[in-house]
Design a protein that fits this description.
With 274 residues, the protein is of the alpha/beta class. The protein has a single domain (11-249), classed as NAD(P)-binding Rossmann-like Domain (Rossmann fold). Helix content is 47%, strand content 16%. It has helices at 20-31, 43-55, 70-84, 107-128, 154-174, 193-197, 207-211, 221-231, 250-273; strands at 11-15, 35-40, 59-64, 87-92, 132-141, 180-186, 243-246. It has a seven-stranded parallel β-sheet with strand order 3-2-1-4-5-6-7, sandwiched between helices. It is globular and about 75 Å long. The protein starts with 10 loop residues before the first strand and ends with a helix. The structure holds coenzyme A and NADP nicotinamide-adenine-dinucleotide phosphate (NAP). Coenzyme A is lined by residues 95-98, 100, 104-106, 108-109, 112-113, 193-194, 197.
Length: 274
């Protein structure tokens, strides 16, 4: 069954929305009739994203902003407000990632990811609140690392766990203002910077990532964009404070695999004792 969303006359703002998954979210809302603003650090990325959305017939504006810099985030919101009024959908998805064990992470290497992912999300939420319309939908883009500990990912695990809890606290605090706050946790998504950075160099097709997905395929950017539109639609008007995996079942499989592995080693140890 095909589902069509209509966001005509709605204003959508996507931080980190100039490439990858977040750009796909921005494009999907624009395709559904929304006015869409995208913001990120690099002017070339901002210009290219705006051109891409506009060429497809969308109404787009771009802002150069670093989510680590509260003033630049606030200025982007002020620009959107001046032109389009209050914000109906706010997406916070800027992130950084690289593989590094704790013992090879400098304090600044740990901090840079926490600054972008977690402090950046706080800045977007804090600066954005006064511009949100009643009935607004707020979406934070988190990751499976928030709940599944992973080697080489201490910085991301810590930062995204914070994003999940911030999402839940904001749902508590903003519910009475008729604002819903949810998070999306994508699984491995094909054709993205995030997946490329976590894929072994001898596995360019992402087969290793696919093995942990019960549905047997990598996700698409459209999978995530569709969930973002659903969560921001009237069909989801009673959903708030939820962190929703969109991962083909990967999160439950990883947890299951870990427990099963622990069970196997316990069984092997008790067999050795007897
Ligand atoms: N291993 C270990 N440390 C690393 C690293 C790596 N692969 N890459 C960066 N760092 C460390 C740097 O050495 C530096 O620490 P230092 O000052 O002690 O030397 C610190 O991280 C900051 O690096 P810097 O390059 O100055 O940060 P930046 O602000 O320019 O860029 C990053 C931020 C590092 C996260 C960069 O990868 C980025 O811009 N990523 C955005 C895109 C992305 O990651 N997409 C995937 C999203 S899931
Ligand atoms: P991506 O293409 O690298 O997207 C990251 C975006 O954030 C870029 O537009 C980047 O643009 C922007 N950005 C980075 N640092 C910023 C900063 N300090 N201030 C403002 N903008 C900043 O990565 P992606 O793979 O699509 O990931 C998007 C989101 O999905 C992230 O939140 C990631 O954690 C999450 N996720 C991805 C996957 C996956 O498989 N790809 C899986 C789970 C979760 P500039 O460089 O111009 O700033």
């Amino acid at each position: 069954m095909d589902v069509r969303f209509d966001f005509t006359n709605k204003t959508v703002v996507v931080f980190g929305g100039t490439t990858g998954i977040n750009l796909a979210i921005a494009e999907a809302f624009a395709g559904a009739g929304a006015r869409v603003a995208v913001a990120s650090r690099k002017p070339d990325n901002v210009d290219a994203a705006v051109a891409r959305i506009t060429q497809s017939g969308g109404d787009a504006r771009g802002f150069v902003a670093d989510v680590r810099d509260f003033e630049s985030v606030a200025a982007a919101f002020a620009g959107v407000r001046a032109e389009w009024g209050t914000v109906d959908v706010l997406v916070s998805g800027a992130a950084g990632n690289f593989l590094a064990e704790v013992n090879s992470l400098s304090p600044n290497g740990f901090k840079v990811v926490v600054d972008i992912d977690l402090i950046g999300t706080f800045n977007v939420m804090r600066a954005g609140f006064e511009h949100l319309a009643s009935g607004a939908s707020v979406l934070n883009i988190t990751a499976p690392q928030a709940t599944i500990p992973m080697r080489y990912q201490a910085h991301v695990c810590a930062a995204k766990a914070g994003v999940d809890q911030l999402t839940r606290v904001l749902a508590l605090e903003w519910g009475s203002r008729n604002i819903r706050v949810n998070a999306i946790a994508p699984g491995p998504i094909s054709g993205t910077e995030g997946l490329e950075r976590l894929t072994p160099t001898d596995d360019p097709g992402g087969d290793t990532a696919m093995m942990s997905v019960p549905l047997g395929r990598l996700g698409t950017k459209q999978d995530i964009a569709s969930l973002a539109m659903f969560l921001s639609s009237s069909a989801a008007s009673y959903i708030s404070g939820a962190v929703i995996p969109c991962d083909g079942g990967g999160a439950i499989d990883s947890v299951k695999s870990g427990i099963e592995e622990a069970g196997r080693s316990l069984a092997a140890a008790s067999k050795a004792d007897s």
